[in-house]
Amino acid sequence: MAKDGSSMILPSLMSEALKWAHKNSLWPMPFGTSCCGIEIMSTLSSTYDLSRFGAEVVRFSPRQADLLIVGGTITTKMAPVLRTIYEQILEPKWVISMGACASSGNGIFDTYSVLMGIDEIIPVDVYVPGCPPIPEGLIHAILHLQKVIDKNLERKPAVRPTQEDAMNAMTYSKCAQAKLQKSATIVTEDGLAQSKTTPDWKS
Amino acid sequence: MEQSEFVQRQAIATARIHDKYSEDRQLIMDAMNEPILWSTSATDAFNLMKQLQSDELLNFDYLTDITAYDNVDGQDGPKRFVVVYQLFSTKTQTRLRIKLAIDPMETPESLTPLWPGANWLEREVYDMFGVKFKGHPNLRRILMDERFTGFPLRKEYPLKQREQFPDNVPLHLGSHPLAKEERSDEKYLHDFYNPNVLLNIGPAHPAMHGTLRIMCRLNGETIEDAACEIGYLHRGMEKLGENKTYHQWIVYTDRMNYCSALNNNIAYCMTVENLMGISITERCMWVRMILMELSRIIDHIICVAINALDMGAMTVFWLMYYWREEAYTMIESLCGMRLTTTATRVGGMAYDLPEDFIPRLKKFVKEFPSCLVEIHGLLTGNRIWIDRTKNVGKLSKEDALKFSITGPCLRASGIDLDLRRDRPYYAYHQVKFDVVVGSHGDVFERYLVRMEEMRQSVRIIEQCIQRLPGGPIWVDDPRVRIPEKIDVYTKMEVLIHHFKIFMEGINVPPGELYNAVEGPNGELGFYILSKGGPKAWRMRVKAPSFMLFQSFEHSVVGDKIPDAIANLGSLNIIAGELDR
Amino acid sequence: MATINVSRNYTMREKFYLPAIFQGLRITLKRFIQGFVFHKKYTIMYPEEKREYSQRFRGMHFISLDENNIENCTACLLCETVCPSECIHIVADERDPAQNPYGVRKEKRPLSFDIDAIRCCFCGFCEESCPKDAIKLSRNYELSVLSRGEAIYNLDHLKRKVIGRG
Question: Higher-confidence residue: B170 or B26?
Answer without folding.
Answer: B26
